[in-house]
Structure formats: C-alpha cells, structure tokens
Amino acid sequence: FGRYKALHYYVKKAYEDILISFERNNTIINVYVVSDKLADTEAILSLKLIDFEGNIINEIQKKVVIKANSSNLYFEYKIPSTIDQKNNMLYCELSDNKIKSSSIYYFVLPKQLDLKPTNIEIQSKKTEYGYEIALNSSYLAKNVYLDFQAEGLLEDNYFDIIPDQIKIIKFNTSEDFNNLNSKIKIMSLNDIFQSN
C-alpha cells in the first residue's frame, strides 16, 4: 500500500506533454516527437551514440520546432556499421534551458544486451518535500529499481542510469531519517543477468 508498481511509472511517462519515440527500419532509426502542447515549442534535439561505459561515439544536434498537438518525424539516424549493437545505445534529448524529454533506443532486445555488474553510488539530502536522491553508475544500469524500507512515494523508479550521468529523484515523505541510504535496496537488470 502507498507504493507504486512498475506500470504506474511507465504510464506516467507515456502521458508527458512531449515524448520522443523511435521506429526502426533496417539500419535507420526514425526519431519522432509527440506533443500534446497547445502551442509550438522550440527546442534542441540532441542525439548521442553512447557505449555502455559512457563513451560518446558521435553526437548530433539540431534546432527543431515541435508543432502543437502533433506527432512528426524529426530525424533519421543511420546506425554505424562498425558498432557492436549489444553494448551501444542511442540517447535522445529535447531541451531548451532544461530537458523537456529524453529517451533511449537500444539496438537489441534486453536479454541480448551486454550488461555487466556495476556499482551504483547513492547520495541523499533533506529537502522541503522529503529527500532528493542522486544516483550514479560507471556502467549502464538497466531497469534500476529502488526498494525502500520507508514510507513515502518516489517520483520515478524502474529507470536506466547512463554512465557518469547523475540521476536525480525526489522522494516525498514526511519522515525524517538519520541515514536514508541504509533503507534503500538497489536492484537492476544487470544483477539478474549476472546471476544467470
């Protein structure tokens, strides 16, 4: 009771005002943007080919105008023939002064990804709404799940952590903890694949 399941977080993301989606056609990844906003939105579309250790293979930026109430194709990305699709990802982001939307495209199915054990570092600090939690990993952490031995609601869960990019999450709670980190158990798809 009082804790959201995985489906809640996926549905929540699906109902954001602006979404990035992908469609693969052989060696081409079509990048679409869906907008439910009532006005056009100017933004920078950034595409980064990143390996699972966080190295940026290539990067493309493009100024775009996201039309109101629309779903349109904004970029056609050709997959480099030289990459290993099991340990690379295409990270896409829409931003102006802040990130409006982001999404990751994996070139193969989750069970085919070259996932390795990784140590996820965690820090937390007290805020007016509860706590702010910062997570970081030196290797791709897939489908990270935070299990709390504490009452409260997480802003996000079941997410991916891109190497060396800090993931910030709000934890809404009225409780006060001396050591919140000790009450958090972190699990990921990396752990499951390692145990098999």
Topology summary:
Layout (H helix, E strand, L loop, with lengths): L5 H9 L3 E8 L2 E8 L5 E11 L4 E11 L3 E9 L9 E8 L3 E8 L13 E7 L3 E8 L3 E8 L4 E2 L4 E3 L5 E6 L11 E4 L1 H7 L1
Antiparallel strand pairs: 1-2, 2-5, 3-4, 3-6, 6-7, 8-9, 9-13, 10-12, 10-14, 11-13
Summarize it.
The chain is mainly beta. It is 8% helix and 52% strand.
How is this structure best described in words?
By secondary structure, the chain is mostly beta strands. The chain has helices at 6-14, 189-195; strands at 18-25, 28-35, 41-51, 56-66, 70-78, 88-95, 99-106, 120-126, 130-137, 141-148, 153-154, 159-161, 167-172, 184-187. A 4-stranded antiparallel β-sheet has the order 4-3-6-7, with no helix packed on it. The chain has a 4-stranded antiparallel β-sheet with strand order 8-9-13-11, with no helix packed on it. A hairpin with a 4-residue loop joins strand 3 (41-51) and strand 4 (56-66). The chain is globular.
Which structural category do the helix and sheet elements fall into?
mainly beta
Measured by DSSP, the beta-strand proportion falls in over 45%
- Please give the share of residues in helix: under 10%
Specify Rg, calculated over alpha carbons: 18 Å
Summary keywords:
mainly beta, four-stranded antiparallel β-sheet, 196 residues, globular
